[in-house]
Every structure is written in structure tokens, then in C-alpha cells.
Amino acid sequence: MKKALLLFLIVFGIFLLILNVLHSEKSYFNRFKLSELNSGRRLDSQSDENMNTSGLIDGMDRFEWYSMKLNNSLKTADKVSTLYAYEFEHEITITITSWNFIGYRVFCRYIDENDIEIEEPFESFTYPEYIVACKKRKGTRKIGLSVEKNGDFQPLPILNRMLKKPTYELSMCIATLYGDEPKWLMFIEMIEHYKLQGVQHFYLHIHNASNYDLKVINEYVRTGELEVHYLLERDRRADNHWHMVNIADCLIWSRGESKWTIFADLDERILMTKYPGTILDYVRDIDDEEVGSLQFRQQWVLKTELMPEKYKGRDQLTEWMPTHRWHTSTGIGPTGHTAKCIVDTSKVFKMFIHYVVEFFPPPDGNFVEVDIAPEEGLVRHYRDQSLGNWGEKWLKEILKFGSLRTTDYPSQYLTNLTENVYRRAHYVYGNRFD
């Protein structure tokens, strides 16, 4: 009897061992197939249930946190104009161009790879200005917004911002282009200046630019240095109100793709002064994770003529490049006065033209905006006196910051800047048969 029992136990143990081996082989096969599948295709957006498990803000569900920040009852709109959509780890963010549109109810609409809508729309709202946060849905390939739950909407492709690390260390968001003054030379000088300062990529919004200006803009797009978003007017606003659309969209556009992002205008040249290096060198030296923004003070260089309409050669460039032509300068503005910032957009929730309005709450401590002393860096702002009647409106106030004086663009950069501007301008505009 004992021998029979012992034989039974041995046979049963061998049986269990065989089953375990078979199960292990099947599991290995399934893991191999899953890995093979994931390596060959774009991963779908995750489900609503998964996205909030590690996407809390200040210990709260991120969408409840957004709602708390708005703290108002939602308004109803008759239309919404979308711009772009960006997919992050815990949400899809859609930017819009609709003016005066804070706190309006909108519905996120999800489209799969077969252009079929996925499940019920998700109700959201506009906050901060020009920004809508949508929950993620598995299988989403396009997304749109409607003002009614089952209303019309335009599906948008989704830009991937689920990056393991930033693609660029330093980029620049250029303020929206509009107005009639020729921009080609100012634009080339701006790009080439910031390239010398270590900027690796540029983001641009265009509301209005001439065909002549677009030739060189498109050349920078061709070489991969510049991306452009065009702004279509569906409301009624003054041109300068497009600046806030630029700020909001570029805050999201650069988030996750660039570690540091400069927000500045076409006629502004941020540079370091007594600090012995470039802007890129400076931000690389920052080792305090609480720093979320660097705020640079302004010095206005008085521009007294409009820029030339067309390229005529090297002598014209050295005569008309703003860094060569204008030197009469004001005193340096006080801290915060029309300042410009270089920010870590992953830390910024809400931003204005001249400063960060609100940071995301970090796990520990607080993110801060640091005032950069003029001895370390400043903005040389080549401000035209006639456009927008700026000289008549503002110069008297600006002169309170000190008497006029003569200043120069740094000599250590001017030779290379001039040569780089000429090379690009001549390549684009120097063909006499064009």
C-alpha cells in the first residue's frame, strides 16, 4: 500500500511539473508576441480609467484640480475654433483660437483609426485661456471639440508629447507675426542671433506675413530649424491680441519637447552680459529643480525707421541690420516691467506675455521665477517708435528709467552674426532670376 501511494505521488508530481513547463512556454510566447507587436506600431491612447492613477496634481484628480482652478459655472458657446492637439502621459491637450472664451463648456470627441467616434463625448471646459484638457481614451487617433454633446466638430491629428526626455535643451517661441512692416531682415537676424546663443529649435505663429517674408520663413522650415502654426481669424480682434494665442499654444507645443523655452518678440534680442557664455551655457548651469522661469529685464534700443522691403546685397545688410543701425538706448527697466522669460514649460500651468502667472504644484517645495540681474543678462529690444504710436504713448514713461545713452550689440558675436545673416539672405533672395 505504501509503495502504491509513493508511486502515485511521484507520477502526480511529474504531471504537475510538465504542466508548469507548458504554461511557462505559453507565457513566454505571449510576452514575445506582445513585445513584437508594440515595437512595430504607435501605441494607442490609454483608457480613462488608467490615465488618472499616476497623473494626480497636488494629490487630486487632475481634472478636478482644473475645475477647482476655474471655480465658476460653465458658460455655453455657439462655436469653438480649434488649433492643435497634443498627447501627454495623462491627458490630451487641445489649444483653441476662440477669443474671450474662458470657462466655456466644450465636449472632447474621440476618433479611432477607422474614423469612428469612440464612446460618449467627454465634457470639459476652456481654462486657462485658449486651452482645453481632455481625458485619454484607448484607441484614439484623432480628437476634436464641439460646443454641444452631439454637435459638429473637426477632428485633429494628435502631436506626440509622451517623450522620455526633451528633444531640445533650448528652444524659442517667437511672438505672432502680423502687420505690414517688412519682416524678412528682422526675422533672419533674430533667428541667427539666437542660434549663436545656443537655441536649437524655433516655434512660430503667423497671422499675417507677405509672400516675400514667407520665402525665408519657409527656408528655415525646410532646414528643420523652424515649425509654423498659422492662425485663422474666426472672431474679431485687434492684431496684438494674437499674442496670447501664441503664448498659450506654444506653452503646450514646447512642453516636453524642450527643456527650456524662450518667449520673445521678433525685435527682441536676449543675451548674457557679464556672464561668460551663451544663454544655453547659462541654463545648463542651473541645477536647482525649483527654478521654473528666468525673467530678463528690458533695455529699449530706439528704432526710428521701417525695415527695407527687399534684399539688395551685403552692403545693404550691414547698413540695415538692427544690431548695426540703431544704438540709442534707454535705461534698463525695473524688475518685471515688460520683462521676457525663459521657462521650463513642464512646470508652468498658466503664463502671460511677461511672466509666469501660475506654476503646477511640485511634490515638494515651490517652483519659482528668478529675476536675472542686468549684470548677468538682459533684453535688447529694438522697438520701433512709430508702429502703434509707441514712442508717443510710452517713451516718456520709459525715460524715467534713465537718460538715453549709446549701447552696442556685443562685439564678440557681431562678426559671426553679420556673416550668417548675409549667407541666409543671399541664399534665399540673391538669385537675380527669381
Please describe what this structure looks like.
It is built from eleven helices and 21 strands. With about 425 residues, it is α/β, with parallel strands linked by helices. The protein has two domains: about 50-160, Immunoglobulin-like (Sandwich); about 170-430, Spore Coat Polysaccharide Biosynthesis Protein SpsA, Chain A. Strand 8, helix 4 (about 185-195) and strand 9 form a beta-alpha-beta unit. Helix 4 crosses helix 11 (about 410-430). The longest helix has about 40 residues, at about 1-40. The model is unreliable at about 5-10 and about 15-55 (pLDDT under 50). It is found in: Membrane. Its EC number is 2.4.1.-. It comes from Caenorhabditis remanei (Caenorhabditis vulgaris).
Topology, please?
Blueprint lengths: L1 H38 L8 H4 L10 H9 L11 E6 L4 E5 L8 E7 L10 E4 L5 E4 L7 E5 L9 E5 L7 E10 L6 H13 L4 E6 L4 H12 L3 E5 L11 H13 L3 E7 L3 E5 L6 H6 L6 E6 L1 E6 L10 H7 L1 H4 L2 E5 L7 E4 L4 E4 L4 E4 L8 E5 L4 E8 L5 H9 L6 E2 L4 H19 L5
Parallel strand pairs: 1-7, 8-9, 8-11, 9-10, 13-19, 14-20
Antiparallel strand pairs: 1-2, 2-5, 3-4, 3-6, 6-7, 11-16, 12-20, 13-16, 14-15, 15-21, 17-18
Helix pairs in contact: 4-11
Pfam families: Glyco_transf_92
Family: Belongs to the glycosyltransferase 92 family.
EC number: 2.4.1.-
